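Narrative progress, year one. The postdoctoral researcher (J.K.) led the effort to move from monomer predictions toward full complexes, under supervision of the PI. The following entry was the first complex the group processed end to end, covering 224 residues in total.
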Amino acid sequence: GAVVSQHPSRVICKSGTSVKIECRSLDFQATTMFWYRQFPKQSLMLMATSNEGSKATYEQGVEKDKFLINHASLTLSTLTVTSAHPEDSSFYICSAGRLAEETQYFGPGTRLLVL
Amino acid sequence: SQQGEEDPQALSIQEGENATMNCSYKTSINNLQWYRQNSGRGLVHLILIRSNEREKHSGRLRVTLDTSKKSSSLLITASRAADTASYFCATTGTYKYIFGTGTRLKVLA
């Protein structure tokens, strides 16, 4: 149990377009999901906390209008990178936790390349 | 930055040897967790150690925690080529995780 999926696994887009990344908890409900960004050979940086039914909480320095997060159900959170630029190219990873558990379960990640 | 630090940044060992990596953090924690990441993949949870625990074992993994020094170590015994990956520690204080900088482990066959 505790499987988290992400779709797509990789995406290439043109500069100026928007890209949506989905994060799903397949076999459990997640009231909270987290979105991270990871640059090559670097650590994961938390971007935002996605709360089901309410607005996301963004970390300092993360533009909420640039990275739109929607958590419409207990099993799905989406991250939309709006007006993507080459510097948005990165590896985006989501995670979700089950109620009363201390461990987060991570998705396989989405590699975004903006040309 | 609240990010923790891990050392070494990179470690290369022969198969069968032990690998030790360390993690230091800055704030009070509820627990500390170690994750593994294969290249270009998501994270796999390895082990969780709570703030009131000092040592924990899981198979070939041994984790220690010293809250007075705000540090933890991960020991992988009898390493295998398949252990080649990046290893991250993550601390949780309130609700969110803060990841360390990671150690890239390469196990040579």
